[in-house]
Specification:
Largest sheet: 2 strands, parallel
Radius of gyration: 20 Å
Helix content: 40-55%
Strand content: under 5%
Length: 174
Amino acid sequence: CSLLGEVGLCSKEYINREADSSLSGGESKRIEIATVLARKNASMLVFDEPEAGIDLWSFARLTETFEQLRQRVIAMHHLDPMEPQEVEPYMRHRLSVVGWQGRPHFTPDAFAALYSGSDGVPRRLNQLAGRVMLYGAIEQLDTIDAHAVAAVVADIAGDMPGVKPIVVPEPPAA
């Protein structure tokens, strides 16, 4: 129970629960981290954004665990958020890798809205862009603009605390 305890999963509530799809994202992430920690004899441990998708209680608990590990860390890397002008080339590259040929078309204000909705954090940007593409497919949009991104952000904000809706200014009336 010691490794599970390190990631906050050694309580009667979790032990008596069947480990299946009923686990939350945070619980699954903590089990993944406990699995890596179980390899104590490993010469290298690699964690990819271990704090992503977990609740605040788990985050605090894992912070304690990672502080202990940090004493033995040789190298760490943290991706800083992108600048607003980096989002468009990044998104165009990511889309071209999967065969995108300009359809749907993304307007400049869509890239600005993607930045606003993700704060430039790559993982959030990728998740938001995926949801925007799904929204565009469902709504059969030929053009993704800031309004489409704002609609998706508003939907996500309803599901996830901490996500703030974005405001898209309306063009001036002619």
